[in-house]
Write a structure and sequence with these properties.
- There is one protein chain.
- Strands 1-2 form a two-stranded antiparallel sheet.
- The protein has one domain: Arp2/3 complex 21 kDa subunit ARPC3.
- It is globular, with a radius of gyration of 17 Å.
- By secondary structure, it is mainly alpha-helical.
- The protein contains 7 helices and 2 strands, in the order H-E-E-H-H-H-H-H-H.
- The two termini are about 25 Å apart.
Length: about 180
């Protein structure tokens, strides 16, 4: 009997990871773009949810699959594809480790701080990806990084604040469906 429950839980977890990866792709397309240097989207939200619900492996898996598919549909495979995927994978792993340490029951304050941390990690690493991409593909100019740096940083913090404030109630609802024990 217990074995059946365990299998169902694994199947449910895999199904939710698949749904979150697909949602990552969709949210990637539903973004606001400002040239090649700024994109405001919610594609990291499913990655962070997977990490908070199930840990670093699930956060990384949702990021790998979701962001990879988004990149393939949007740009195809390029020399910098991995650089665009890496920030989301790292964020999924780091937030997942914090969630695991808290027994997947982070406080609202911790969730808020983790969202801000996640957004800042993605911002920093995406800045590196923009730099590398612009050098490789010949659209680099000195202000491509510095010109939008402050605006991109402020946007990351605001996005982290907003998502961190609204996410606890969504996570509680998802926890009732997934039975992962969040209170």
């Amino acid at each position: 009997m217990n074995t059946g429950t365990h299998r169902q839980s694994k199947a449910q977890r895999l199904a939710l990871d698949g749904i979150l990866a697909a949602l990552t792709v969709v949210l990637g397309f539903l973004s606001i773009r400002i040239g090649n240097i700024m994109k405001i989207s919610l594609e990291d939200l499913p990655v962070i949810f997977a990490a908070l619900l199930y840990g670093p492996a699930d956060g990384a898996a949702v990021a790998c699959v979701g962001i990879f598919l988004y990149q393939m549909f949007s740009f195809g495979f390029t020399a910098t594809t991995a650089l665009w995927i890496l920030p989301f994978v790292v964020t999924g792993v780091i937030i997942g480790l914090f969630a695991k340490k808290a027994g997947y029951n982070n406080t609202n304050r911790q969730i808020l701080l983790l969202f801000i941390l996640g957004e800042l990690l993605i911002w920093i690493m995406n800045t590196g990806a923009i730099y590398a991409d612009s050098k490789i593909y010949g659209y680099y100019y000195p202000t491509i990084i510095t010109g939008m740096l402050a605006i991109r940083c402020v946007t990351a913090v605001i996005k982290g604040l907003v998502l961190g404030l609204i996410s606890p109630s969504i996570l509680k609802m998802l926890s009732r469906i997934t039975y992962n024990g969040r209170r």
